[in-house]
Write a structure and sequence with these properties.
The protein is built from 10 helices and 14 strands. By secondary structure, the chain is an alpha/beta fold. α3 packs parallel to α4. The chain is globular and about 65 Å long. It binds adenosine monophosphate.
Length: about 300
């Protein structure tokens, strides 16, 4: 049994009030698979890069036990490139450049040994490709989680809606929830989105945590207040990877495990933002992760004698 993660494997150039990076390795599948690998040992990626991607970068995935057989390398082509600049509040950003490059005609190939997929993370990428991966799996996975962004809502809303119909969990941020539903209130937005296909909706609110909606239930998870946030890039993907990695580990899908999974995802995301790019989530120890989970527990537990 395994967890397949699809999404971009990319080069990013990031500018925040604390500094600037040249092209560094990023991409939704990169962050999500690294995060998931802390909880589950059968993580497999499906993605595409150009020949500008280095062997050492692929070795980094393998060092985390991530199977890269489904990572295609296109000779003579360039990897997906994204560049963004954060505002002083570090919550909002402008996308400066999105170069699809190899992603433009990506045909996701599912290796035979990936057909044991039980958990599928459709990371941020063209909605048509996300759907193709579902169609190419011989058996429907036990859980399909989809993450997307405003970019795809702007240019491919109809395709996105078709894909969303097929998934169990949708993770998006608050602005994207408003764009997708046409509702300003997140409660009303969630009500509408839960009629579009997914049974669970997670709305990520950056430094304000995340909300989980399922039927008439709502769970609110905090974000850890951090003294220093260097670079929020990839926090959403790291969250999603930690979330599904934890669920794959526990193996039972229910509201309570989803709540815990959100805390695990949030914990990993809180590490991600402390350094540029993937730097911080490359070398975490189990103890660091466990301590961070305890910080979340302390942060939001209280007793009321009522
Ligand atoms: P996040 O900060 O969680 O939204 O994710 C940032 C990552 O998403 C970066 O590493 C980018 O390479 C990647 N990314 C940016 N735009 C897109 C897009 N339109 N489709 C897929 N991945 C993207």
């Amino acid at each position: 049994m395994s967890l397949i993660i699809i999404g971009t494997v990319a080069f990013d150039a990031i500018e925040t009030p604390f500094g600037k990076t040249d092209k560094i390795v990023g991409g939704a599948a990169t962050y999500a698979s690294l995060a998931a690998s802390y909880f589950y040992d059968k993580v497999k990626i499906v993605a595409v890069v150009g020949d500008d991607f280095h062997k050492e970068d692929i070795d980094t995935f393998n060092a985390h036990g991530i199977d890269t057989e489904g990572l295609q390398i296109k000779e003579g082509e360039k990897s997906f490139f994204w560049s963004g600049k954060y505002h002083n509040d570090m919550n909002s950003r402008d996308t400066l450049v999105t170069e699809l490059n190899v992603l433009a005609d990506f045909d996701p190939i599912i290796p035979e040994n990936y057909q044991d997929c039980e958990y599928l993370m459709l990371g941020n990428l063209t909605p048509i490709i996300q759907r193709t991966v579902i169609e190419r799996l011989k058996n429907r996975p036990k859980l399909i989680v989809l993450d997307t962004m405003n970019f795809w809502m702007d240019i491919m809303m109809d395709d996105l809606l078709e894909t969303i119909k097929l998934v169990d969990v949708l993770t998006i941020n608050d602005e994207e929830a408003r764009q997708l539903s046409g509702e300003y209130s997140l409660v009303k937005a969630a009500e509408k989105i839960l009629t579009m296909g997914p049974k669970y909706l997670i709305i990520k609110k950056g430094e304000h945590g995340a909300l989980l909606f399922h039927e008439d239930k709502i769970f609110s998870a905090p974000a850890l207040p951090l003294a220093e946030v260097f670079d929020p890039t990839g926090a959403g993907d790291t969250f999603a990877g930690g979330f599904i990695g934890y669920l794959a580990k526990v193996g039972t899908i229910n509201f309570n495990n989803m709540k815990n999974a959100i805390i695990y995802g949030s914990a990993l995301a809180s590490f991600c933002v402390e350094k540029f790019g993937t730097e911080k989530i490359l070398n975490l120890t189990d103890e660091e992760v466990a301590d961070r989970i305890q910080e979340f527990v302390k942060l939001s537990s209280f007793t009321i004698d009522a």
